[in-house]
Design a protein that fits this description.
Layout: H1 5-21, H2 27-54, E1 62-66, E2 72-77, H3 82-86, E3 94-100, E4 106-107, H4 113-120, E5 127-134, E6 137-144, H5 150-167, E7 180-181, H6 192-199, H7 202-206, H8 209-224, H9 229-235, H10 239-256, H11 260-265, E8 270-271, H12 274-285, H13 291-301, H14 305-312
Antiparallel strand pairs: 1-2, 2-3, 3-4, 3-5, 5-6, 7-8
Length: 313
């Protein structure tokens, strides 16, 4: 099991809860609680050690894909690194074990990706040995770790982005026949309907608590025009008003974007599902500087996109 910062926080909360209960626990229960707290502390320490190892500056300059058994496959190699210049490592090679110079190789079976990175990284100038399999044969590759230059890091980032885009290829329909219209066009620029929404400040409103409160208020005001509407709003504690506010806010966003006809007219990409839309947007355009602004404006028109984005990231 890989222990992330989220896991660590859960353990800290659990430890605090146990400590609180300690005052009314029996001696046996207190002993068990102490043991659990010690276990939690050990897990957190282990996680920190793994993170420190994985953040060592010395790298071999390869992009790795993880396999189910813990091994990794070389997906790309940065130019100018020892891995590239030696020619001993190739894209598609599978790394199954790692060793420091003079030590026995440590199998990657059952290792998390963080643990694997921690084994491969190290001090710049140090040697690392990789056990590499290709088909039924295996070989040992010795490489010198080094700090990556900015150009090398950018080269790996481009390879990673290209591979990620391959995985979402085909999700976007190349016309506006899909149910959900793309905020980006096929040439990679922001669709005109999104630009109109951004210029109308709809995106900034979506990304703030003020925008949500305004939507709920608009909903309550809309209900006031319905017989018994104010009574409904007070009876449900604002729940109905909030829902109506979302609808009013969405209608306002569509109007600010030029209306449905304009949105469809200026969209040349669309999606069959919100999950497809979320995966494609975050993968293809998620690194753009204005992505959050575009996303906020899009969420005003498609508020139901939010859960899909949470699972896509």
């Amino acid at each position: 099991m890989t222990f992330s910062t989220k896991h660590a926080m859960r353990y800290v909360v659990l430890a605090a809860a146990l400590a609180t209960l300690g005052g009314c626990a029996t001696p046996q229960q207190q002993q068990q609680q102490l043991q659990q707290q010690q276990l939690i502390a050990a897990k957190i320490q282990q996680m920190r050690a793994q993170q420190e190892a994985a953040s060592q500056p010395g790298q071999i300059g390869v992009l790795m894909d993880t396999n189910q058994d813990g091994s990794v496959t070389v997906a790309g190699i940065a130019p100018g690194t020892d891995a590239a210049e030696s020619g001993d490592l190739k894209v598609g090679d599978r790394i199954t074990a790692v060793a420091e110079e003079g030590a026995e190789p440590e199998s990657l079976t059952g290792k998390s990706f963080l643990q694997t990175v921690g084994l491969i990284r190290g001090a710049p100038g140090s040697q690392v040995r990789l056990i590499v399999t290709e088909g039924d044969s295996s070989r040992e590759v010795s490489l010198t770790r080094a700090e990556l230059s900015e150009q090398q890091a950018q080269a790996l980032a481009k390879i990673k982005q290209a591979k990620a885009e391959e995985q979402v290829e085909g999700l976007a329909i190349e016309d506006n026949s899909g149910e959900y219209l793309s905020p980006y066009t096929s040439d990679g620029v922001t669709a005109e309907w999104v630009n109109k929404a951004i210029n109308a400040k709809m995106g900034s409103a979506a990304g703030s608590a003020v925008g949500a409160a305004a939507g709920a208020y608009a909903g309550r005001k809309a209900l006031e025009s319905v017989p018994g509407g104010s009574l409904i709003g007070s009876f449900f504690g604002g729940m109905a008003g909030s829902k109506a506010g979302q609808n009013v806010g969405r209608d306002a966003a569509i109007e600010a974007s030029g209306g449905w006809d304009y949105i469809r007219q200026t969209s040349d990409l669309s999606f069959r599902s919100l999950n497809d839309m979320a995966r494609w947007m975050t993968t293809v355009h998620g690194q753009k500087s204005n992505f959050q602004e575009v996303l906020n404006a899009t969420l005003q028109v498609y508020p139901e996109l939010q859960p899909a984005l949470a699972s896509a990231r």
